[in-house]
Amino acid sequence: MDWEELGAMVVACTRCAISQTRSRTVFGVGDRQADWMVIGEAPGAEEDRQGEPFVGKAGQLLTNMLLAIGMRRETVYIANVLKCRPPNNRDPKPDEVSNCRGYLERQIELVNPALILVVGRIAAQNLLQTDAPLARLRGREHRAPLTGTPVVVTYHPAYLLRQPADKRKAWQDLLFAREITDRRRV
Ligand code: URA
After folding, report:
1. What is the span of the domain harbouring residue 120?
2. Does the Cβ of 48 fall within 6 Å of ligand 1?
3. Which residue, 114, 141, 165, 182, is the most exposed by fewest CB within 10 angstroms?
């Protein structure tokens, strides 16, 4: 499946009940040949309105976090585990994650990034298929199933908006991620 076919499938998808309550699907955005791919959980209200991931308050913080390590938002590829907004921003249900998994897996294959930065526990647990808490997932290099792409886990920017004291630790995570991609270039 190429980008066009994949995009068309997502726009038309009705596998989950939440397809009935979405305003728009939120496919993904950015450089399709990016070195870095950022993966979040699911669209929120603003993303559902605009059809683009991470455009609300948390998205602005994500954009700034990337800039802090010298990466403009346009130079990465950003997507979510779910392409539709769960009502009231509830956690994704397991059947929703499994219905949507193939779309994200194909996006990862097509971008073929050098690194995946996963933001937040929900996205990390779903992508890496683990129950481990975020504290155990941070600070280590994981591998994405199927592609074996290096994965680094950090806090969700929405969490950091509530707990700004943890931004320092998120900064460490970003430096760790950059170390991994820098290492691959030499
Ligand atoms: N939170 C996410 O995980 N993804 C978005 O696109 C927006 C907020």
Report:
1. 3-185
2. no
3. 165
Instruction: Name the residue of 22, 47, 60, 104 whose CB sits within 8 Å of the most ligand 1 atoms, as the mutation to test its pocket.
Output: 47
Count of domains observed in the chain: 1
| C-alpha dist (Å) from residue 123 to 4, 12, 93, 141, 182 | 25, 23, 12, 16, 24
User: What spacing in Å lies between the alpha carbon of 100 and ligand 1's midpoint?
Assistant: 15
Reported pTM: 0.97
Q: Domain holding 121: CATH number?
A: 3.40.470.10
CA-proximal residue: ligand 1, atom 7 (nearest): 54
* Residue 26 alpha carbon to ligand 1 centre in Å: 10
pLDDT tens for residues 57-105? 999 999 999 999 999 999 999 999 999 999 999 999 999 999 999 999 9
User: Which residue(s) pair with 78 in the sheet?
Assistant: 29, 38
Residue given tokens 């994949």 in the structure block = 6
